[in-house]
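pasting for the record
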Amino acid sequence: MSGYIEDRWIKKKKDPATGRREKTTRYRKGKRYGVAGVTGVRDRSFDTLEDAKSWLRRSATDEERGEFVDPRDGSITLADYIKTHWAPGRGGAPKTQQNQERRARLHIVPHLGEVPLKNITAADLRTYTATLEETVSSVDYQRGILSELSSILEAAVDDKRLARNPMHAKSVRWPKAPREPREAWRLMTALRVREAISPRNRIAVVLGLGCGLRQGEVFGLSHADVDYEKGVLHVRRQVQSISGKLYFTLPKGAKTRTVDMPPSRTR
């Protein structure tokens, strides 16, 4: 590992006339010893020579393990890191980005936003998880928020601002999704639901129950997507609401698919 220690109070070279090392203009101003020349790391200052040597040794060991992080890079708050580094590089579909932004703005930044990255501990995250369980009713949504936070902290690790992701601590336990038994509607129940809906929207029940289409896929279906001869539907698009406006997008996972149409039944 590159790097060297300099004495900021006393000049390195001796005076030719006296044979002594003279004082610098910074004598007794600020910390005496500095570690400089470490690639990609700002200079560090220390009061004692031993502290400077110890930090340089630990840094070299961490670099060999691939774990070296300049602690000051983690002094940025979580909110500033999200705004400056996480959000601009966030990828994915527009709807996904909107959901990510909402989870961070409403559920992460208000609780942890002012905490520096390096100060986020497992204890903080245990408290935060408990807060989510009290304030967010949906377990799936709680897990989505925690997944978002973990992704942000993982990016901070990649950016060399954290040595490790505190969300991976064993004591930080995510809420478990309840395993509720699910039972398909009986035919008579499905027919009653269909009849209760207005005639214009009644087809949505048939497409959802009979063909397994999601709501957005039902709204995005076109006559051209129906192949009566082969008895199949081509799911090519869905309708999504993004920032209050409706858009056509690819189906979930950006994957189109073909589904079978069930045989028609009459009552």
